[in-house]
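Hi support team,

I submitted a single chain yesterday and got back a structure, but I'm not sure I'm reading the token output correctly. Could someone confirm the output below corresponds to the sequence I sent? I've pasted both exactly as they appear in my results page.

Thanks,
R.
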Amino acid sequence: MRLLELGSRGEVSLTRDFGDDVPRYSILSHTWGADDEEVTFNDLREGLGRGKVGHKKIEFCGNQARKDGLQYFWVDTCCIDKANHSELSEAITSMFRWYRGAVKCYVYLSDVSARIRDNDAQTQHTWESAFRTSRWFTRCWTLQELLAPETVEFFSREEELLGDKKVLEQQLHQITGIPVTALHGGSLSYFSVSERMRWAANRHTKKKEDQAYCLLGIFDVSMSLRYGEGEKALARLEKKVNGSSNNELIIWLAPARSEEFQAKASASRHPDTGMSFTTGPLLSWLGDEPGHSSLMWITGKLEKVKAFASDKSATVFAYHYCSFSDPDSQQPVNILGSLVAQNSAWQPSSLKDLKGIFERDKARKKGKTLQVWELEQVLVKHIATFSAAIILFDALNESKDFFGTVACILSLLRQLPNLKALVTSTRSAATARTNQWPHLVEVQMNPDEDIRTFVEANLSDHVALRYLSPECMEIVRSVLIGKADQT
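Hi R., thanks for writing in. Yes, this is the structure output for that exact sequence:
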């Protein structure tokens, strides 16, 4: 991997190829302009290109890297010798890994301005509509550039920071249709092939072959590059991906797409609700040692726990969302199966422990014979190797075997002193018979303040409501808040 350095006078230079010993670096994500506008590998090697339009992006990336304490940075237009077929092939195959390995990814949006002047010449920050329609969201290559890095920061054409991937996660979810859990940087193997294909469905590339090559990292596969084959490249990719036994095994383990249901629930949540819990009891519980408070039981409804829990120091995090509209998500064997599938992102060997059962079921064609106790054994074996673990069971009251699933949770907690389990349910801990658990923290959610916040926000922001008279607003407020059933 070859990187860039920015000199004291703004000059950009190429480094040597670092091989496997790559230093810390930042990386640029952008949309390409016309070919003659972009700075190429040859331009930099010959000391040219400073007058090109694309040089501004390179300088921006270098300056931003310097602000973040990084000496090196990478830009795709000029760090790859595209005339060298073997180097180009290696770069395309490694691209996802290179973006994932970056300390920070800077997204430069040339079609989004953070400064719009009104009639009084006062600066207004109304960039979000332009952000939502940015060309960056229509390009295939930028899909992996969004998903692979842990930290992605978005900048306007004036080089002003608009927000990072975490701050803008709801906008990104709405624009792309990608679940929030995928945006958080976890393993993409938990998402089905068809779902990952949908993420790229409305994106475009200049060359047809690149529609396949830009997805290699997203599906974690390798294949030869054959420019000139056109749409056959995508057919080769699909054949390669669908032939992966691990993908079949994961779908067999976790047929319910709980992340889709959780993402929809999360997207419907008002941004200012639930804060009294997430900044208080949840943070305290996460900070406790597992032996002190290994089980938190939340009676009520709660979305976005993963966003808080995944930022903490647990080595591994897994969750399952039981949806009332998806019977597969309610089965205990699928609940534990989804946890094993997620764990396989950290420990692929966990799949090997179940491959024999999978092959047997596949050969017999008589349905899934996998038992809950077999999954429990695999989870105990592999979670025990981590320093800490958190598992979230969301909307557990929807489980087909509620008490059986609760028994599984308690069994895991007994065998794994490094495990903390967080349960959300409309049934109380007493109903679940967990109130005698010695390390229980029970929280009764009181959403009255959240309901009030939601109603007030809609009265002030909704186009059809904000022009009501004060008297009408008070009637709406009184009826909605007064008759709310705390859900």
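A quick pointer for reading it: Residues 85-101 form the longest helix (17 residues). Let us know if anything else looks off.

Best,
Support desk
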